[in-house]
Write a structure and sequence with these properties.
Structural class: alpha+beta
Largest sheet: 3 strands, antiparallel
Order of helices and strands: EEEEHEHH
Oligomer: single chain
Distance between the termini: 10 Å
Number of domains: 2
CATH topology of the largest domain: Molybdopterin biosynthesis moea protein, domain 2
Length: 105
């Protein structure tokens, strides 16, 4: 599962992936989204007084926690869709909302 975190520049390690473009005071992009952090990049950002970066990290998810989270979401969706009927469009919407909520906890 991917997790977005704002980390202090001192904590960021080479190889991490940038999740939000780094811009200077004038709005110019210094580092684009998706770039991989390098030592040289960290040194340059420190010189520009950039204090933190939004980083995307891959985290291993606990299967039990995943199942518990899915159960909570399913219970909520069942309540929301309780009077929506059983048509194909309703089932499709239910599955789309479930997939979205599982991906964006």
């Amino acid at each position: 599962m991917k997790v977005l975190e704002v980390l202090a520049l001192e904590v960021v390690k080479p190889g991490m992936k940038i999740a939000a473009a780094v811009v200077d005071e004038g709005g110019r992009v210094l580092v684009p989204v998706g770039a991989e952090v390098t030592e040289l990049m960290l040194a340059g950002l420190a010189r520009r007084d950039i204090a933190s970066l939004k980083i995307e990290q891959e985290v291993e998810e606990d299967p039990a926690a995943h199942a518990a989270h899915r159960a909570v979401i399913t219970t909520r969706l069942d309540r929301l869709f309780r009077q929506a009927g059983d048509a194909l469009a309703t089932r499709t919407l239910y599955q789309a909302v479930l997939a979205h909520r599982m991906e964006h906890p």
